[in-house]
Amino acid sequence: MKRCIASILALLSSVALAQDWPQRPVRIIAPFAAASTPDTFARVLAENLRKRIGQPVVVENKPGAGGMIGTDAVAKAAPDGYTLGVSIVGPLVNNKLLYKKMPYDPDRDLAPITIAVTQPSLLVVPAGRGINDLSELIADLKRRPGKANYASIGVGSLSHLTMELVAAASGTEIVHVPYPGSSQAVTALIAGDVDMGCLPALSVVPHVRSGKLKAIGVSTGRRSSLLPDVPTLKEQGLAGIDAGAWIGIVAPAGTPAPLLERIRREVVAVLKEPEVVAALANQMMEVVGNTPEEFAVHLREERDRWTPIILKSKITLD
């Protein structure tokens, strides 16, 4: 009986906490540097969430260790709704496979709130190569196995893993050439120093439109509403290719469920505002705004997708 009463009181307390949130400034930790994609998203969210909830919303950058320093700060924060994090597939899924040690366990120490946005990646080639679609690209790769190469934005990055997935699905061998970031990878592509790359749409679309690069396909499972005329790799015959970038919002584990739901409702309401949708579309981000349960399922799907690729390619970051 006492245990039942205690549970009821705890539930009532957490409901009251959710109803009263927020009573002071909210902190959003971005685990990458200023002007990175997660930081850009966090600042759009923070400014518009501030208007909705009537409290300051501050973005704090904590970059380093593949996003783990900032994500660890979220994991170790008080579970009271006043520290949230934006994060991506690396710190939430893949780093557990890429690193021997992590300062937190994403499954145990973090509570998923929502996938906020997705971002298409584009497989592109230099326009001068004369390759127009995926079948032509694969035929070229099979004519010269191990001779072609691709650019990525770093070992273990989504651009790296996606191209390894493409190679596995197409039965081809492509040499990996990592660069420090998107700008360097794109410069190498335009110069013809590398043969291809699957890179964030934001970094390559201007060069596709100018005619310097040729878009072969998007790596997501469905066409992007931001690039409706670009076919997916999947519809061009590469079964199992569904490798989209996304940004999710997380909280420390132990945050009461009613409070998580209150935060989710407020965040999703902000994301659906027309001016926010437009601002994010300018950054090649499509709004999602799903549930914690759907987010958790997606995290498991990502783990299932990338585990065999990381193990087969023997990719490590230690």
Quick structural overview:
This protein is an alpha/beta fold. Helix content is 46%, strand content 19%. The strands form two sheets. The protein has a six-stranded mixed beta sheet with strand order 2-1-3-10-4-11, with helices on both faces. The protein has a five-stranded mixed beta sheet with strand order 7-6-8-5-9.
Structure description:
By secondary structure, the chain is of the alpha/beta class. It is 46% helix and 19% strand. It contains twelve helices and eleven strands. Helix 2 packs across helix 10 and helix 4 packs parallel to helix 12. The chain is globular and about 65 Å long. It starts with a helix and ends in a 5-residue tail after the last helix.
Distance between the termini: 51 Å
Question: Largest beta sheet: what is the strand line-up?
Answer: 2-1-3-10-4-11
Q: Note the main sheet.
A: 6 strands, mixed
What does the average pLDDT come to? 94
User: Overall 3D geometry?
Assistant: globular
Structural class: alpha/beta
Question: What fraction, in percent, of the residue positions are helical?
Answer: 40-55%
What percent strand? 15-25%
Low-confidence stretches: 6-12
Helical segment count: 12
Order of helices and strands: HEHEHEHHEEHEHEHEHEEHHEH
Cα gyration radius (Å): 21 Å
Q: Would you count the extended β strands for me?
A: 11
